[in-house]
Design goal:
Shape: elongated
Oligomer: single chain
Largest sheet: none
Helix content: over 70%
Radius of gyration: 13 Å
Strand content: under 5%
Structural class: mainly alpha
Number of strands: 0
Number of helices: 2
């Protein structure tokens, strides 16, 4: 999943001219969302 996100982020970066940190921010947000969602679900 992270590899697909990195490839999509690189494509988005090249097409839109976004800075490289955008991919890292999106990856971090998705990880926080997934960890938060699974944390609440197991309780």
């Amino acid at each position: 999943m992270l590899a697909a996100l990195a490839v999509a982020g690189d494509s988005l970066q090249l097409d839109s001219g976004l800075p490289a940190a955008t991919v890292n921010i999106l990856t971090g947000l998705i990880l926080v969302a997934v960890l938060g969602w699974t944390g609440r679900r197991t309780r």
